Amino acid sequence: MASPTEENYLKALFNLANSQGEITLSELASRLQVSLPTANSMVKSLQKSQWVNYEKYKPLTLTPEGRLLAASIIRKHRLTEMFLVDIMKFGWEEVHEVAEQIEHIHAPKFFERMDEMLGYPASDPHGSPIPGLDGKLQQQSYVPLSSALPGQKVELLALSNSSAEFLEFLNSRGLSLGLTLTVISSERFDGSMVLSYTDHPSEALSGTICERLLVRVHTKATTH
Fold this sequence. Notes:
Layout: H1 4-16, E1 22-23, H2 25-32, H3 36-48, E2 52-53, E3 60-62, H4 64-86, H5 96-102, H6 108-118, E4 143-144, E5 153-159, H7 164-172, E6 180-186, E7 193-197, E8 200-205, H8 207-212, E9 213-217
Antiparallel strand pairs: 1-3, 2-3, 4-9, 5-6, 5-9, 6-7, 7-8
């Protein structure tokens, strides 16, 4: 059984992996805010447990067993966040720290019951996919809002950043998942956009914010 620290490393490795499943030691250390020697020592421990493939000067990869364990931790975290929002009525900006603690509980039936009560959700409150019991993630065909064109209608479905500060900002602008947004204009210089939605007829958002909002495009751009 992995310790909470080991589970945090596995989760970080899962989230950092590129399309080839590779992660550099420096990326891992940076994500976890630890020194390279500290990260290197833990990776060697994970290798001994056969959760990580490690060779000096080469990228790290998760073993099949390590990937499944990492996915199960992320699954518990995201199910917990969904439970806190849907059942306990927490705000989506309040749930991360609580889920960080609950994800380390080793009680499969507890999370099975949670999943059942929620109706087997495919994603968490921030639109991130919840891994299945087999460790697989459902593919999402979302694009950043920044790629949408004036005249297009898009549906806000996920976020690429779910920090409490960012979520509180979205709350202050009346933005939540499931909203339909109409792109009124976009500024090529800085990526900022003006949007219309619900009771916000003309809301300006910075390019940074637009990059973090993931959408599905519903209409073609208006042409003149």
